[in-house]
Amino acid sequence: MTAFSHGHQFINGSYRTGTGGSFPRVNPATGAIAEEVDYASIRDLNDAVQAAASAFPAWSSLTPGERSEHLLNFAVALTARADELAAMETAQTGKTARLSSGFDIPGTIDNVNFFAGAARHLQGLAAGDYAGKSTSMVRREAIGVIGSIAPWNYPLQMAAWKVLPAIAAGNTIVLKPSELTPGTSLLFAQIASEAGLPDGVINVVVGSGQEVGEALVRHPLVKMSSFTGSTAVGRRVMAMAAESGKRVHLELGGKAPLIVFQDADVEAAAHGAVAGSTINAGQDCTAATRAYVHSSLFGAFTARVAALMETMVVGDPLLEDTDMGSLISQAHRTKVASMVDRAVAAGATVLTGGGAPDLAGAFYRPTLIVGAAQDSEIVQDEIFGPVLVVLPFETEDQAIALANDSAFGLAASAWTSNVHLAMRAGAEIEAGCVWINEHIPIVSEMPHGGFKSSGFGKDMSSYSFEEYTNVKHVLISHDTDIHKEWQNTVFKQR
Ligand code: NAD
């Protein structure tokens, strides 16, 4: 990819070459070096934050309608470049072209369109007379410069989920994408600029997490840090933000359970489990990773899932017939393979998969594991690969308790034809999203975000405005009497 011959930093409306060294980015599906990515120095980062701070007064002063119009123009421009964005997303992640063009890019464009509309509904409480002769109103105000940090699994969508609610609400932003996948975030900012968004509203800096990421979180002009990534780094971001009492928004890891109750449609549940565990090669924070299946269905479910997994075509992500592309890197594949190997050493059995096909890239087969203990690493820790572990249960109480026996709480699904059980699962499973007879679908109108170690704060939906706005109470007295009765509690009226 030579698209960024003018550098990998998008600051104040134009590209520049970072002055903080460089890094050879590898195409994970081929193992070949794709490009040399320049890194931002702290000086480059300061320039980006300054550009965002300078753009803030004018951008936050636009009417919601004017910001909305910018976003609508942006959506049209993105649609015109959808093929280019999809090709770049596949080239940098190794995910299938089918997923990039059918999910990542249209999902992002839909988000832009959603926030173009939502920008006009940034409402506070209109008015109310709560304290005698006075009227209260609530203003929702932009916060200022937002520093956002995104992961590599859905690079464009994760960037969009951070950028869009922030700018729709009147903030400006400095985004640091993962250094492994900077391309589509840069192109996103470039297209926004070409569509007419003012310089400095969206800035992208590319660099390492330890240096540029930490400096972005700590920067005094950055008023809020929003982060999507691993739980370990999210905790570090929170600790750094605490040094200055900075606001944080954290979307962290997941370990989604999938419960198959006794009355479930096994065929539907098996299809849902295969798609839900292998989407994006399992590198999805909401991927189905632990299935709890009623003991009466255990054999039928595992046999069907194994059979379906074995039909999956793993390989060249550009081919239309390929179902699953590569993982993000050889190092990540080693991590996934090691976790599977340790599960087997601890007594689990691999029913299918459990290894890599004979290909140059970082591929790993869809893998089904049984016989693992509930407290084992493979059931408790995030694996972020195409691996599903299945455990049996006997009672409904037990199924829900096992699903909740996790540090994480991002997403979950329950499969049943009993409406009472569906409602119970929806209420009792500790997760930010519970699907019934589905696993994975997300929509721009609905919030996405976790409980417990999966973080807090919501992406997408108008709930995300809670994160990116300050809520202010303005009280206007219309009492013309100089002597206010409440003042007697402080000093007697004279
Ligand atoms: P990661 O935590 O390693 O990196 C995420 C980002 O943080 C990258 O841009 C990285 O450069 C940066 N970073 C690393 N160290 C940093 C530091 N010390 N200070 C500041 N920034 C730092 O995560 P990853 O491997 O890129 O992504 C996978 C993780 O993301 C998984 O845990 C997955 O569950 C999670 N994720 C969560 C959601 C969600 O919505 N909850 C969505 C997608 C991915």
From TrEMBL:
Organism lineage: Bacteria, Bacillati, Actinomycetota, Actinomycetes, Micrococcales
Organism annotation: Arthrobacter alpinus
Source superkingdom: Bacteria
Active site, UniProt feature: 251
Molecular function (Gene Ontology), one example: aminobutyraldehyde dehydrogenase (NAD+) activity
UniProt entry keywords in alphabetical sequence: Oxidoreductase
Gene3D superfamilies, alphabetized: Aldehyde Dehydrogenase, Chain A, domain 1 (3.40.605.10), Aldehyde Dehydrogenase, Chain A, domain 2 (3.40.309.10)
This protein's name: Gamma-aminobutyraldehyde dehydrogenase
Domain Aldehyde dehydrogenase per the UniProt entry, residue ranges: 19-474
Family under the similarity heading: Belongs to the aldehyde dehydrogenase family.
EC number: 1.2.1.19
Keyword Oxidoreductase tagged: yes
